[in-house]
Amino acid sequence: MSINSANCSFLHSWKPLPKAISLFILFFLLKACGGSSSSQAEPDESTPPPSLTLPSQPSAQALTIEAEDYIRFMDTTEGNQGNAFRNDNVDIEAVEDGSGFTVSYTDANEWLEYDITLSAGAYIISTNVASELGGASYSLALDGITVGNDTVGATGGWQVFESHDIALIEVTEGEHVLRIEIASGPFNIDNIDFKVDDGSFVPPVIAADEAPIELPDVEMIIDANPISPATAVNEMGIGINLGNTLDAPTEGDWAPAAEEQIIIDFKEAGFKHIRIPVTWHHRTATSAPYDVDPVEMNRVEEVVDWALAQDLYVILNVHHDDWLKKGGNTFTQKNRNRFDAIWLQIVERFKNKSAKLMLEILNEPVDLTSSNVDELNVRVLEIIRRTNPTRLVVFSGNGFTPIDSLLAAAIPDPEDNYLIGNFHAYDPWPFAGQCLRRWGSESDIAELGDIYQKAHDWSVENNIPVTVNEFGAAHYDFTAPENICDEADRLKYIEAHVNFATEHGISATFWDDAGSFSTYDRANYSWGPEKDILVAPNLP
């Protein structure tokens, strides 16, 4: 090979190459172009050039992570509702085509973590997700840093999966921790792919938040025989919750479905009111106009009518709607619009019912601030009052709604004469919920009495009657069934609640969930010993 100086002008446009190759080529060209003053003889052209050992360059390698192969997790419900693959609390179902498993029933505040090994390089992180309802959202974090956010619309079914490219990342070689955090559910996730970057990544589009709903014109219903809050609370006495029924994801998931005979038994046992908790999420569309499934609304109305037919006071509410109240990033205008739409439809359906039907705005808004809840209380009260100016409305504070949150809550309309304040009392929870201690000392009784005294004082100060529409004590901790509450302590505790509530003129609703907190056996239509304690003040 021969190169003369006339051929060397390309050196001015020299492009960087890997170091070892660059040095070898530069040396060769300089020699050929007269750039070396070495006195050494040039090698014979027949002599082969020296061999080069180039350093290895790490490159990205694709990786697929099956969603069910998590290492750590947080799940908000007890047990595996999908009954497949694993026996912890994460809900896993078999994929219908037999190809594997999918993490399902995801809900706000849940997360999954994976320990993964990656080669250095650039990756597109992609997920395979599905939802029949839509309206879900989640984020991905790598080594504690959020790398992408995504929403899941209605894909056509719970196992009709879509591939979503979520993030473009560059990583170092080695061990990493991947975390998926559920902001709102439900949706199913099949797998997570780390695809080698091929230049095709387009960031996911996160829909802009909605404008507030403009409330429609509605017909105002004037009740000729309204019931005052004071009269209602006095006549309600001690009541019972139809828990774990219409508030379950699907009726029958957590407890036997409601039957008219159950309501009749409540009435005949001596209870004077019933609380019917309802979770509306799975009954309601996740996109505007947020229609409630008419079949589901009919079912709720059927159960309410059974109770009204027994001349019971009835509390109807919005219960486990965690998409609005749990997870820390749920107080969006879109979610508030959905909440408004649900209440508009509830009010429309029940506007002509007996004055004994009262509406409870929101159960235990655990992750909302006090100001968030104050705002919701004002808004829903406005929705109700546009149609029913004298319907009894129950409001509370934030969190798990202990008495102190009621004391801190703003009264949604100080001029409204049909309001009832509400709180919940399972104090102390290590006894009443976890069965980790005994109960019944003088100080235990005094501390419970102080709660009811606070409620009484607030009621007198604000001229608003009060109800405690959840109280009770577990037979056992359903999250740790080996923890069993002392039965004598339970009965003493329940009796103390009944006595304090009666003494202070506060209506009280026992939490019966047909499970660990129950007194009524729905399978056998029979009662436990709690019943006689509960109904004693109601009897003539």
Structural notes for this entry:
The protein has 540 residues and is an alpha/beta fold. It is built from 12 helices and 23 strands. It has helices at 19-32, 229-236, 260-269, 294-309, 322-325, 333-350, 370-387, 403-408, 429-432, 442-462, 487-503, 530-535; strands at 63-66, 72-74, 92-94, 101-103, 111-118, 121-131, 136-142, 145-152, 157-171, 174-184, 188-196, 238-241, 273-276, 313-317, 357-360, 393-395, 419-425, 466-471, 476-477, 480-484, 507-510, 520-521, 526-527. The strands form 6 sheets. It has an 8-stranded parallel barrel, surrounded by 6 helices. The protein has a 5-stranded antiparallel sheet with strand order 2-5-10-7-8, with no helix packed on it. Strand 16, helix 8 (403-408) and strand 17 (419-425) form a beta-alpha-beta unit. The longest helix has 21 residues, at 442-462. The protein is globular and about 80 Å long. The termini are far apart. Mean pLDDT is 90; it is low at 1-43.
Short description:
Helix content is 26%, strand content 24%. It has 12 helices and 23 strands. The strands form 6 sheets. It has an 8-stranded parallel barrel with strand order 12-13-14-15-16-17-18-21, surrounded by 6 helices.
